[in-house]
Amino acid sequence: MSHHIIEFKDVFFRYPDGTEALRGINFRITHGESVGIVGANGSGKSTLLQHMNGCLLPTSGTVTIGDLPLTRKTRQEIRRKVGIIFQNPDDQLFMPTVFDDVAFGPLNLGMDEACVRERVHRALGMVHGLDLRDKPPHHLSGGQKSSVAIASVIAMEPDILALDEPAANLDPKSRRSLIAFLKTFTHSKMIASHDLDLILDVCERCIVIGDGSVVADGPSAKILSNRTLLEENNLELPLSLQRC
């Protein structure tokens, strides 16, 4: 299934102020892979994910999603394929009610009202947010906002998921629900997170980013049990492995 493939080839990205955030990133993700992206603050994880659906475009190199190279002309089509969940849920929530926010994407796909309601109900159910549907998003807690932001992307039923710190504001129950959902999402997904236990639990592959470059790429169990590698990149062993 080529439409689930993600490929970065020699990707560099420089912000307008001259900061070089990505330096020659190369990797290929095939259908059904779950890949964790880990690294210290400022290593380039969020910048990398924002290249997944054209929020950012490479300064040089190529990003390919499915059969489409990412360009200004193709990014609208790519955004139909890739659902991205940002680190700050306030970047995604802008409608008067939770229902409106989750319904926004399906409505823009031209779906009829009955289908939209079904998708909203299913997506909010997955994040235990059905009781929030009529509330204004700005009245929600940080964790509730994160859950709704995730639901707004789930409702689009994307081919590929890209998540930036998805568990950062979640309580333990919501975190467990998120992990359960991610395990049922059988298409390709990339998860950038400092929650290394979540990465270990959900992702069979892990990429370590350091100073805008790929430092390591391999099985999560191997990467995340390498204390020396993690410490060199200002990371620590997952808590579950620290207890071993």
Identify the CATH class of the domain at 2-87 and 159-242.
Alpha Beta
Q: Using DSSP, what is the number of strands?
A: 10
**Gap between N and C termini, in Å?**
39 Å
Overall average pLDDT = 90
Oligomer: single chain
Low-confidence stretches: none
Strand adjacency order, main sheet: 6-7-8-3-9-10
Any overview of this molecule?
The protein has 244 residues and is an alpha/beta fold. It is 35% helix and 24% strand. It has 10 helices and 10 strands. It is globular. The model has no long low-confidence stretch (mean pLDDT 90).
Short recap of the structure:
By secondary structure, the protein is α/β, with parallel strands linked by helices.
Question: How would you describe this structure in keywords?
Answer:
four-stranded antiparallel β-sheet; alpha/beta; six-stranded mixed β-sheet; Rossmann fold; 10 helices; 244 residues; globular; 10 strands
Describe how the helices and strands are arranged.
Layout: E1 6-14, E2 20-29, E3 34-38, H1 45-50, E4 60-65, E5 68-69, H2 75-81, E6 82-85, H3 98-108, H4 113-126, H5 142-154, E7 160-164, H6 172-184, E8 189-192, H7 196-202, E9 205-210, E10 213-219, H8 220-223, H9 227-232, H10 239-242
Parallel strand pairs: 3-8, 3-9, 6-7, 7-8
Antiparallel strand pairs: 1-2, 1-4, 4-5, 9-10
